[in-house]
User: Fold Small auxin up regulated protein from Thlaspi arvense.
Amino acid sequence: MKKLKTAMEKLQKSFLLAKRQISDDFEEGGESMGVPEDVKEGHFAVVAIEDDQIKRFVVPLSCLTHPSFMRLLERAAEEYGFHQEGALIVPCRPSELERIVAEHWIKGC
Assistant:
């Protein structure tokens, strides 16, 4: 459980740093890559990768508290570390992530 808490804290810090960097870029009037148009406020991009299956998702931040998604974050931290750039990559089949997101919406978390 302590590993999960540490993983969540690091993930939250990385989100805050990314948000701050994007804000700074826009305030300075400089050009930045920005956030893709399909990633609305309160959402983030996730890429599910397993074997030859790859699919990108845009999911609400509230999914971060879903127990199954938290386990995926733990697996991602073990497999890829905390130095990912861009979309969050999780080691699972796209169908597994679809199930987690659907379950999240059904429960209204």
